[in-house]
Write a structure and sequence with these properties.
The complex is a heterodimer. Chain A is of the alpha+beta class. Helix content of chain A is 23%, strand content 28%. Classes of the chains: A alpha+beta, B alpha+beta.
Chain lengths: 104, 554
């Protein structure tokens, strides 16, 4: 039996800054995971990934990352994605400088 | 200190110009990421978890004060005010922007530095004993030979597309501070019948298949060494596996073929290669040697040092841990700890880099070294200057007296920065150091090296840590495996796994239990952790780590 599809977001790194970014449903890139489009349909996920991968002049390394619906939008399911959306734990650098995401 | 020739300068200028154009073409969309990636990696530029990372080579870990100041400038102007010294004697900047990198490389070129071959399947930065040229136990300064290897390997046409990366380390001492047995090739300079040469070790390495290097030749004279090394790399380049990147390093080639077969092939290849080396390399080596002539060591009374040592206990503690014997009895080698308790191992701020540069210029014949243990060294210091140096270091949080102790931890960047990592290492290091500082036990515990890697690639050298910690992802949770009894010196050994791993919040208490077991087991305070482990074996440590398993078995 094929595995059940788990919800995803499209994520990548920004070409110029390298920062972690997410694709929104309005086809915009956001630095805030809670604004990302949470994709619940597998076929749609593949289309959205293709949409992202076409944009090679502004992003790098697009892929589908597992996420779940939270109170304020998508939330990560794996600690790696939690670090990606937050920044390093030894300094308040990266996204934490703008304090968009409190650390869980 | 090596000074760039016109050729070096022109070569670097050309490379930097090429890379600037490549970055422009990437930004304007004419290069795809697939096309650009190998080009940026050739220039030390990685894309990590949150940002780009620029890895700058510090050849054989040697810097002048001007170079250190330039590293500070890069940190301040194009990064977040700090740099991270690595286990390969390099420095990494964690936050550069793509458009700024060409300017960073130009700034490095101004002081004879670059980021070439800090990535990719090439011969990487040649590392050396960080006490080179100063150590009391040295046969010869290994850095002239390391510089010859840098020139030989840079852009070497035969060695640009090898099965995998290739790392060479070199030491001039019997006491191995350069971990030569965990490198693809390790060289130990020795003298035989008045002729300088090297013992050649091959096929060491850490990563997922850790191996201690084996002796390929007990002695190769300098005249033949470059040809011999070319033959060695050439044999591996030909028969090394390209079907599986995890089986591609020379350690696997040596393991699969056996050291005797490899030796025979190298000897055969050596006879072919040797006639191509007509002595130009030896002429070059002579020229390079002149760049590394030792400074004229100043003379003077060391009375002020002796009186400070007697009267100031903080100074005395720092001297007892952070100072190593120098070949000139009135001088000392100072290791500046970049491991303040609770701070990130290997991270120095731009201000700290400038302070160390100033100290080097004023007191240390303008030389600095970076150690693979992520500390900074002033290799030549007259003892009378030690009190002034210590006072200055204290002002800038650089006077931690912990070299070789439990808080002098090697830690890779781990999942706080690295895209390959499977768990964090930095916070584990921070917590261990903080905990043992609170316990005020570390001077009593004595010599104990903890090394932490955030993935199986082992940049944190965990296999050769007296206590090694490896961070893994176990079913979506960080989990830490422990090894004991590893050793990165001339008595090199791979550590033994204790058993099941520990969760993130269990790992510091687990280390504490290991240390308690050691304190209980040791015969005297003179017996180090490693000596105790070698005497008593794993059992008492296992009992301390897994009390439940012991209870169940009983």
């Amino acid at each position: 039996m094929p595995r059940t599809f788990t919800p995803k977001v499209v994520t990548a790194n920004d070409l110029m800054e390298g920062d972690v970014i997410y694709l929104t449903s309005e086809d915009r890139w956001t630095r805030d995971l809670s604004e990302a489009e949470l994709i619940t349909d597998e076929a749609h996920a593949q289309v959205r990934l293709l949409d992202a991968q076409r944009q090679t002049d502004i992003i790098v390394g697009a892929y589908l990352a597992d996420a779940v619906a939270g109170e304020n939008g998508p939330e990560p399911t794996h600690f790696r994605e939690d670090f990606r959306r937050t920044g390093p734990s030894n300094y308040a650098h990266g996204k934490q400088e703008k304090a968009t995401q409190p650390r869980a | 200190m090596y000074r760039y020739s016109e050729f070096d300068t022109a070569f670097l200028e050309e490379r930097n110009k090429q890379f600037r154009a490549q970055v422009e073409r990437r930004i304007d969309g004419s290069l795809t990421e697939d096309e650009f990636k190998p080009l940026r990696l050739m220039n030390g530029l990685y894309l990590q978890l949150h940002a780009y990372m620029l890895r700058v080579a510090i050849p054989y870990g040697t810097l002048s004060s001007a170079q250190m100041r330039q590293l500070a400038l890069l940190a301040e102007k194009w990064d977040k005010g700090y740099g991270h010294f690595t286990t390969r004697q390099n420095i990494q900047y964690n936050w550069p922007k793509l458009k700024d990198v060409p300017d960073m490389l130009d700034a490095l070129a101004e002081v004879g530095m670059h980021a070439i071959q800090t990535s990719g399947n090439t011969i990487r930065n040649v590392t050396a004993d960080h006490f080179a040229g100063a150590a009391a136990d040295e046969v010869a300064d290994p850095r002239p030979y390391a510089e010859l290897l840098r020139q030989w390997s840079t852009d070497h046409p035969e060695f640009q597309f090898m099965p995998r990366k290739f790392k060479i380390a070199i030491t001039g001492s019997e006491n191995d501070r350069a971990v030569i047995k965990a490198h693809d090739i390790g060289l130990q300079l020795i003298e035989r019948d008045g002729v300088l040469g090297a013992r050649v070790i091959v096929g060491g390495g850490l990563g997922r298949t850790p191996m201690i290097g084996k002796e390929l030749s007990e002695f190769v004279a300098f005249d033949d060494l470059l040809a011999y090394l070319e033959a060695t790399v050439s044999v591996w380049n030909q028969i090394g596996r390209r079907d599986n990147k995890y089986k591609a390093r020379i350690k696997i080639t040596v393991h699969e073929n056996g050291i005797d077969t490899i030796r025979a092939k190298v000897n055969e290849r050596f006879l072919q290669v040797r006639p191509q080396f007509k002595g130009a390399d030896m002429a070059l080596l002579e020229e390079i040697k002149s760049h590394f002539a030792p400074p004229v060591f100043r003379e003077g009374s060391v009375a002020s040092f002796e009186s400070a040592y007697t009267t100031d206990p903080v100074f005395r503690s720092w001297i007892d841990t952070n100072i190593a014997p120098h070949k000139n009895a009135d001088h000392a080698i100072v290791t500046i700890s970049i491991k303040k308790h609770g701070a990130t191992p290997g991270d120095a701020t731009a201000e700290q880099m400038r302070v160390m540069a100033d100290l080097a210029e004023e007191f240390a014949y303008d030389e600095l070294r970076i150690s693979h243990e992520q500390n900074v060294i002033l290799p030549h210091v007259h003892k009378s200057d030690l009190p002034a140096i210590h006072a200055k270091l204290k002002e800038y949080e650089l006077a931690t007296a912990n070299i070789g102790l439990i808080s002098d931890i090697i830690a890779c960047p781990g999942m706080d920065y690295c895209a390959l990592a499977t768990a964090r290492s930095i916070p584990v290091a921070q917590q261990i150091a903080t905990r043992f500082d609170e316990l005020k036990l570390e001077h009593d515990i004595g010599h104990l090296k903890i090394k932490i890697s955030g993935c199986i690639n082992a940049c944190g050298h965990h296999h050769v840590g007296h206590i090694g910690i490896l961070g893994l992802d176990r079913a979506g949770v960080e989990n830490y495996q422990i090894t004991l009894g590893g050793d990165g010196t001339e008595t090199a050994a791979i550590g033994d796994r204790t058993g099941p791993g520990f969760a993130y919040d269990e790992i510091v208490p687990a280390v504490e239990r290991i240390v308690d077991a050691y304190l209980e087991q040791r015969e005297s305070s003179e017996e180090t952790f490693l000596q105790t482990y070698r005497r008593v074996g794993m059992a008492p440590f296992k009992a301390a780590l897994y009390p439940e398993a012991q209870a169940n078995a009983a």
